[in-house]
Write a structure and sequence with these properties.
Layout: H1 9-52, H2 57-75, H3 81-93, H4 97-101, H5 109-115, H6 121-134, H7 138-146, H8 149-154, H9 159-168, E1 183-184, H10 198-207, H11 209-216, E2 220-231, E3 234-244, E4 249-259, H12 262-279, E5 288-295, H13 298-304, E6 312-318, H14 324-336
Parallel strand pairs: 1-6, 4-5, 5-6
Antiparallel strand pairs: 2-3, 3-4
Length: 343
Amino acid sequence: MEVTEFKNYDRLIHQISETYLEGQKNAVTAVNTTIVETYWKIGQYIVEFEQGGNVKAEYGKALLKRLSYDLSLTHNKGFSLSNVYLMRQFFIRYPKFQTVSGKFDRLSWSHFCELIPIDNEHERTFYEVQCQIENWNVRELKRQKQSSLFLRLAASKDKEGILKLARHGQLIEKPIDLIREPYVLEFLKIPEPYHLTETELETRLIDHLQQFLLELGKGFAFIGRQYRITLGNTHYYVDLVFYHRILKCFVLIDLKKEKAGYEDVGQMNMYLGYFENEESTEGDNPPIGIVLAKEKDDLLVKYAMHNLSSQLFVSKYQFYLPDKQILQNELTKLLQNTNTDQV
């Protein structure tokens, strides 16, 4: 064949590849839809059997154990006791099938296995939504649950803000929406007592950049570390520089191994001024600065930031998972508080 006969060959390859990949994606979605629907129906049958036979609570475990044994004999796998229990709970958590079917394209049965045990409806709904908007895989969902992401975000909000967070997930609309208190860096696996320099901490974060980006949240793109800026023939270095795709601005992070001081706030404010005037381009919004420290004095920070940029934040980090029960108790208090204006 002449070469001219292949002038549309690349296009043909592209069309076939696109169709093939789309077919694979649809096949996975179809299989996932079938599995989730099947398990929901099995849960429905179990619950309806219990209700129809007026099965007492003390016999419930015995029923599930017998079902697991008999169904495993027939079908070999897929009916472990824990799986049968989850199927039953699946129907109880989501009694309306329409609620489940709308999540098929993003949430697998493995996702639901992580969501079903969450008792608090607001917390469970948040993770459902966040899985979909950030496309979390199961491993990422597990990590965010373990780090109590919802409870950490909810702790800084009022009742209305908590309900909005549960319904819509974490919406990134303004700089404050990026901030978490505290940031949890348990993925660094640093035992206590720990004695890290700021450079060592920075290096470890870069070595675990994927996990750090997950903790920072949606929209962060890494630009560089020890980003040099020069003022009056003196060099300064910003520890970590990111660009946020949603807010369209630079995000500067300065790491402190101990307590954040007023001088750290002033230095970050200088960095923000430099980036806004020297680094930002047309269309960029003003940069955001985060001083990330092991400890902070809220009163000191308040006065140190008096009349400074509203784009500047001081937040804490910790190397271990937070006490979930304490956070849950705080959430309960916040949700129980009634706005006095409504009384």
